[in-house]
Specification:
Largest sheet: 5 strands, mixed
Structural class: alpha/beta
Shape: elongated
Number of helices: 5
Order of helices and strands: EEEHEEHEHHEH
Helix content: 25-40%
Radius of gyration: 19 Å
CATH architecture: 2-Layer Sandwich
CATH topology: Nucleotidyltransferase, domain 5
Number of domains: 1
Number of strands: 7
């Protein structure tokens, strides 16, 4: 249970790493991807929002509070947190570091259980999903 996990995530991809020793290197153990996040908004919705007309004949569009891209990212944040929760329940790690794009970190917080939140040692608001394990490790404390 002394194992440390590091997750690096954005709306498109989440990479999971483990560190066997506090000063050791990161080893990538898994990657989750969200290909829908790379699509344009128009590719995610089937048609435009509806329209409504009032008695005077003027019309206005029905909008949604959240875009389809936001919904896709929020759904993926839930998937990433569910994966972390499974690891927590299996006692796969005793400490967790979360690095991610700032907006995506906020979405992830909404999906975290209190038990998972208690294992998070630090959150770093940087999008490093495309970086090497060595560059990601350089953003973390010397001893995890």
């Amino acid at each position: 249970m002394n194992k440390t996990w590091v997750v690096v995530a954005d709306a498109c991809r989440a990479r999971f790493f483990t560190a066997e020793k506090p000063a050791g290197p990161l080893n990538e153990i898994e990657t989750l991807s969200n290909p829908e996040a790379r699509l344009h908004e128009g590719d995610l919705v089937s048609d435009r929002g509806g329209r409504d007309a009032n008695a005077a004949g003027a019309s206005h569009g029905f909008g949604t509070a959240r875009s389809a891209k936001d919904e896709t990212a929020n759904r993926f944040a839930g998937e990433v947190c569910a994966h972390l929760e499974q690891g927590r329940q299996k006692h796969a790690f005793g400490k967790l570091y979360v690095l991610g794009a700032p907006g995506f970190l906020g979405m992830m917080r909404k999906h975290q259980s209190s038990g998972l939140r208690n294992l998070i040692s630090d959150e770093i608001a940087k999008d490093l999903t495309t970086q090497s394990p060595e560059r990601i490790r350089a953003q973390l404390p010397e001893y995890l």
